[in-house]
């Protein structure tokens, strides 16, 4: 399965659309040459090392024997190469061996990793979230103990949130933490859906676990976060945390999804007691943006595969790429990918620039809008392959199966829509969204479709702010979709102004005429109201 | 996996929307009691016999040993029950043991079969297409030889079109037919993607095969159709047709998708020499409508599964069905299903009524619009399940995987869009479509959304008729989507007029406010033009 990092599209999105170079003062070491070298290097790793084991990993899956999980063939060597390249620590703290580069650059690197092999990409992605949690919430001795080894990739990390009885409802967690004489806690409970929760690619795994300290308040205000290493720091002995099952899933077969049993495991509080949700949100935000990137990445992989097929496959004496409907699908794929890429990169640049309001606003858009596009584009990729798309040998089915997880994990896309409404829109009475609309208007004078879409988004925003809660929640997913449609176009239009580019301009134009034209219909969907629901 | 035939929704779509009783004079034996008994009986078979082996069949798949294909456990008993119930011959010619009922009733029966077990449903569906081809194109002795055994279900049938080098392009077929002294032909070639091409559930399989007689004109005008029985009629000896491979697919695992090798197999010409495409289109039209029904059926199964999950699963102390976004998804699912069901049933009623223009117009809508909704609704079903949707144990993933084939086979949905444009719209200069628009206007006076959508469809129709071919083909899929949106609503509005129903009315209203609101955006997509494509 050949994949080549779309460096030109990536650089246009990163530099022109997401305005990477606004970070020049904050990151003086980064220049265009270094950026180029990083993207080329990551692209080479993705193409030469990760993509070749994507299909084989999908077929092989992982093997659970006792409590040991054996990764698919080739994953050990691939992880060694990833580690050796220093890719894990690209954006991490130089004090612990990181390279201190912008998260946006690290995110672009992860795009190529996810495109080449989404199952593999989840391992460094989860490690990254653990690094961010410890960097931001860890005590100095915790940083000293864990960061260097996580940043080098020697150890890997996990997030342990979900329990069998509590999916997205973290307040219902029952895993308990009992204080011990040495300052540690004994952690007992079961966690499900733990990505790369157990594996044989690293000598230690650092679990970040939400649990409830004895006597803590009920609900989400009584949750704390703990570090639970697979091997104890004190003596290197095996901790009482074990993988007791791996899920049989529709996709990402080579990524073990583990059920973890904690039976009095030694854990160390990270951050304050009962403030685990705050620490968790640090991880979640990083993870959500990365999952959004996965959506774009799997779409890119599906697009490249479909394009190659369409250029190679003859039908009726002509290549199928000559059929307008095939070209329409391919153009749709590429246009949506490019808009989604701009959203993800811009979210990361906002985070790097300390523009918290824009980062917070773009995070649910990146997560939900881009993962929905991942599914849609992967499905178009199957369609372009015809019968070969449904046959596993064809290679397109894999992307369709893999892509389907991204709208679900790290908070379903429905939860992203609630987040956009409740935590982003209501919490500042729409200020952050109005700033995005103002940015859109500022660029839209020469773009009538974009100007109309900005108007629609403004009306929709007014509606969301004034509507009864149930009515607003009924329209929240459509509102997120409209906001994503507009944000992608706004960033793209800005990019074209910064760096005029004929190819990008025509793709942008297609996007406006096929996506932004839906803005009024989105407003109707947003305004439909809870009374219209009849299930 | 529990499934219950949605008899009330089915009857509303069949009797009220599709106007089944306009067939009263043609089918005097059918009355409401018989209809009720048939639907209840089919629903019971689907729920009690077919649904219970859906998951197990998906896991087991089929086994190819030598040239023998062994069906999954339970399929033999299920097929015996299907046969014993006389379900195969519901709409077939009474002269050969059929029951002579409307195809619309048989289609509704097939809906329940496909919902319960899409892999299973493909077997009687393919037999049905063979029956229709022989009924319409077979010589009297061919009818005598095959029809009774196909109609009883004792033997099954297949369609052999695709070859490795020629997917949708039938003109490129190379399978050859050499005339023999006894009037038969020796058929040699390879066919791929042959559904239920080989299996162990029936003592004989009747293959309908497209091939080229020695010396026939090149291209699609040199193709003839042949009957190739697995066991020869003359002496019961094994014919030289063998299954040499089964595909490993993303879904419909229990339905064998076979590569068939013909090595001088005895075949008998059906219909005229070089007129194979006409006979093939008879089969294709029946198959396309049935595939559209599959889309609705798998969507219904996904909907029922998701509804049950949402009513059972607690999150944050409440059932997830109480969340507006979950209810929005469920309402969307049910509304689209009901519109799609009306389109499929109305297409069958048009066929039964001899309304060829309407049947021809609705066939590509049924095939493409309803299979796209199958994928979309199955994906929503996964989403409602959250993490359990991605885990195979949850049961929702199966529908998402199975649904994905329907937009591909029996002519991809892109081909349906070309068919709608070329063979339906251009061939009568839009008369059939204008009749559908007139029907819509006639019912739309009290339905402003529907009236606007009819206007949009008319403008789009004018555009399609006047646009350059490449531009029209660029917009053809969006045009089909708009036509389906409108046709579904028109049929539904008619049904509500014939049989007022509060529940259906509120679902219809949701459909208008969430689907028909997109009509203007569809017109923009339809009009985008080939120059906007940039891949």
Please give a quick description of this structure.
Two copies of one chain form a homodimer. The first copy, chain A, is an alpha+beta fold.
- Poorly predicted ranges of chain A: none
Order of helices and strands of chain A: HHHEEHHHHEEEEEEEHEEHHHHHHHHHH
Number of strands of chain A: 11
Sheet with most strands: strand arrangement of chain A:
4-5-9-7-6
Straight-line N-to-C gap of chain A: 44 Å
Q: Please outline the major beta sheet of chain A.
A: 5 strands, mixed, barrel
Class by SSE composition of chain A = alpha+beta
Which chain pair shows the most residues in contact? A-B, 80 and 80 residues
Blueprint of the fold:
The structure is a homodimer of 535-residue chains.
Chain A: H1 7-17, H2 32-50, H3 54-60, E1 63-65, E2 68-70, H4 75-84, H5 103-116, H6 118-137, H7 140-151, E3 156-160, E4 176-179, E5 185-195, E6 205-213, E7 224-229, E8 241-246, E9 257-270, H8 276-312, E10 314-315, E11 318-319, H9 324-353, H10 356-384, H11 387-390, H12 396-403, H13 413-425, H14 431-443, H15 448-466, H16 469-498, H17 502-514, H18 519-526
Parallel strand pairs in A: 3-6, 4-6
Antiparallel strand pairs in A: 1-2, 4-5, 5-9, 6-7, 7-9, 8-9, 10-11
